[in-house]
Amino acid sequence: MAAQLIDEDPERAHLHALAASRRAGRVAVVRESVAITAYAMGDFALALRELRTYRRISGSDDQIALIVDSERGMGRPDRALEEARSVDRAALPTATRVALAIAMSGARLDRGETELALGELEIPELNPDLAFDWSPALFAARAAVLEDLGRLEEASFWQERADVASAALGHGDDEELIVEDAYEDFADEPESVEFDGDDDGEAEIVEPEEETEAEQPEDGERAE
After folding, report:
1. What are phi and psi of 95, to 5 degrees?
2. Is pLDDT at 198 greater than 50 in this prediction?
3. Is residue 164 helix, strand or coil?
4. For 2-31, what is each residue's pLDDT tens digit?
5. pTM of the predicted model as reported, rounded to 2 decimal places
6. DSSP label at 6?
7. CB 191 within 8 A of CB 207
8. What is the pLDDT of residue 20?
9. What domains can you pick out in the chain, each with its CATH number?
10. What is the radius of gyration, based on Cα positions, of the chain?
11. Nearest CA to 203 among 8, 172, 72?
């Protein structure tokens, strides 16, 4: 129930999670739900407490990015970076590793270290030609840091990639979509992107000679 409500009514979702914790407080997923709903409400102290309890019970670091962000929410970017460095990032699932990179970049921004914030996002998953579930957030984070650095043309490119990836992933259920013909020169970027709907899952960059509408790929995404 908490998962169903969290986007629309995080407070109510949190109440459901708390009720579950009173009945099954030693169940890892229950403590995780309390943490996530507390985070959604901005109660970062409670989120941290519950996330640490969840990690102790489950033995998993899969919520490390939320721990880092909760430390940031408490105004402690130094602690956030310490938490991030305490885990073996190579052992994390890809989605968790990407979320952690974004959280670490945010902590660097909190410290006024904009160049280092950009460096935190320089990970192998930063590929503008591929779109995964985590790609829009990663691309958008890079765009935001580049904008802070005054590199507006590059920021515009990555925000465009974020928008394209988000739209593409909304048209399918698989994890990966191939986005071919990435822009090679920022000055020559086309103004629109059309997903051609072929079975091979490819996306075609098109010039805006006439208005086009993105079509839903028939088999537009392929898993790794």
Report:
1. -60, -40
2. no
3. helix
4. 444 445 545 565 555 555 555 655 678 888
5. 0.70
6. T
7. yes
8. 57
9. 1-60 (1.25.40)
10. 20
11. 172
